[in-house]
Amino acid sequence: MFLATVIISALLAGLLAFSAVRKLSHEQGVVATYTRAGVPEDKLDYLAITLLAGAAGLLLGLVWAPIGVAAAIALVFYFLVAIAFHIRADDAEHLATPLAIALIAAAALILRLATA
Q1: Where are the alpha helices (DSSP H) in the chain?
Q2: What are the pLDDT digits (tens) for 22-39?
Q3: What count of other Cβ atoms lies within 10 Å of the Cβ of residue 10?
C-alpha cells in the first residue's frame, strides 16, 4: 500500500508543479481561464506558491506522515474552492481539471492515512 501512496503522491506533486509553472508564466490563455473563474491575474503567483507548497508537503510527507496528511487535506480544500469558483462563474468547460485533481488529492489523503 505504501507504494501506491508514493505513486499517487508523486503524480499529484508533479501535476501541482506543472500547474504552478503555468500560473507563474502569466500566459494569456492561462490568465483568461482564471479571470473567467473570478481570479484576478495578480493572485496567480499566490496560487502557484500554494500549489508548490502542497507538492513539497506531499513529498516530505512520504518521510513524515503528518506533513503528508496536512498537505493532502489542504489540497482537497484548495481544489474544492477551485471547483466552487468554476461553478459560480458558470465555467463548466474548465471544471473537469480541478475536479480530477481534487479526487487525486482525496486518494493521496486516504492512502497517506492508511499507511501512516
Answers
A1: 2-25, 28-36, 44-60, 65-88, 96-115
A2: 999 999 999 999 999 999
A3: 15
